[in-house]
Amino acid sequence: MKMTEIGIGLLGYGTVGKGIHDLLEANGEEIAQRRGVRLSIRRIAVRDLSKHNSIDSSSLTIDAMEVINDPDCQLIAEVMGGEEPAYSCISRALELKKPTATANKLVVAKHWPALIALARKNEVGFRYEAAVCAGIPILSSLEVGLAGNHIDSITGILNGTTNFILTRMRDSNLEFEEALDEAKELGYAEADPSSDVDGWDAAYKLSILASLGTGLWLDPELIRRKSIRQISNSTILAASALGCQIKLAARFSNIEDSQTANVETVFVFPSHSLFGVDGTENIVQLEANPIGKLQFRGSGAGAGTTASGVVSDLIQLALDLKSGHQRLPNPILGELSIHRNTSEPAAFAVVSSDDSG
Ligand code: NAP
Ligand code: HSE
Question: What is the CA radius of gyration of the chain?
Answer without folding.
Answer: 20
